[in-house]
Predict the structure.
Amino acid sequence: MNTLRPGALGPTPATAPSVASATAMGHVYGIDLLRFLASLAVVLFHFKSFGVGAPEHRATGSDVAFDFLPDWAASGWIGVQLFFVLSGYVIAQSAIGVSWHGFFIKRAIRILPVLWIYATMALLVRVASGESTLERLLDWLRTMVLSPKGPYIDGVVWTLVIEAIFYAVIGLSIVVRQRRGGTALASLDHLALLLGSVSGLFLVFCSVAAAMGLQFATPLDWFGYKLLLLHHGVYFALGMTLFSVTHRQATAAKVAAMALLVLLCLLEIRLKADTDRDMVIAAAIWLFMLAWLVLSITLRPPIARPRIRGVFTTLGKLSYPMYLGHFVLGMYLVPKLALIIEDRPLLLAACLLFITSLALLIAHGPEPWGQQKLRSLFQRMVPARPAKQPAV
C-alpha cells in the first residue's frame, strides 16, 4: 500500500487542506502497525486449524496442530475486512492526480512481484509433495494473472482478486472523470456512494433471506457476487469515505454515511461469522482496528526516535509478504517440523519464525528488485507523461 499522508479531520472550508498539502504532512506510522496486526490475525486464524499429521486446513480433533491458541484466533479472518477498508482509503489517495494507466502501473508494481514469488514457491512445494503437476500448474497460471476464476495455487489469493476488481473500478472512474470533467474527490465520493449503496442493499437482502430461511440464501455466498464487490463493497466505500472526510469538510451527511457504512460492515461480519460468539469477537476486533485507523489518521502522533519509526515501517513492509506466504508454506511446514519438534508451542514459534524471516528477506531483497524490473518494463512500454495537477 502507498504511504498515507492525510489531512486533519473536519477542517473548516477556509482552512481545508488541498491534496498536495495534505500529502506532505507526514507518514502515518500507526497504520503500519495496524496492517501488521491485521496480517498476524489472519495468520493465527489459519494456523489454529492446520493439521499436524498432514498438510490440512480445517483439521479437527487430535489432528489440530495448535488447538491451544486462544478462541479469538478463530475470528482472525476479520483482518481481511480491515485490509479492504485500508485499501479503500489508500487507493482513493493514490487515484488523485494520475492517469488511468499510471494508476494501474503503480498498483501492478506494488502487488505483482511478491505475488509471483510466493505463487512460484507454493507451486514448487505442492508439486514436491506429490500433487498433480498439471493441475497445480493451471492453479499457478490463474494466480499469476489474478484470474477471476479459481482455483488458485494459494488459499488467500482470492482476496487479491477482489482487490484487482476494485482497482479496475477505480481505473474506470478515472477514465470517466477525465472525459467528462469534474474534481477527483467528487468523483471518488460518487463512486463510494454507488459501491456502498449497491453492496449495502445486497447485504440487507442476504440478511432478510437468511432470517426467513429462503432456499436461495446459501447461493448468495457465491464467489461471483464477491467479484461484483457485493459482499465487500461496503468496506471499500468506508475507506474511501474516510479519505474524503479527512480531505474535505466533515459534513453531517458524510459523517452519517460513515456511520451507516460501519453498520453495514457489521452486517457483513454477521453473515460471515459461523456462530454468535465468533460474530461478537470478530466485530469487536474490527471496531478496535477501525478506531485505531481513524485515530492514526486524525491524530498522527509523532515518533521522534528514528529506530522506532524504522520498526513501524518494517512491520508495515512485512504485512503483505507475510500474508501471502503463511498459508501454503505454513500448512506444509507444520507436519514436517512436527517430526522433529514435539512441543506444540515451540513448533508454532518455529513456524512463525520461519514465515516472518522469509517475509523479511523478501521485503528487503526480491520484492524491491522485482518492483524495479517491472517498473523498467512499464517505462519502456508506456512513455512518461507530465503529471497533472490534482483538481480538488
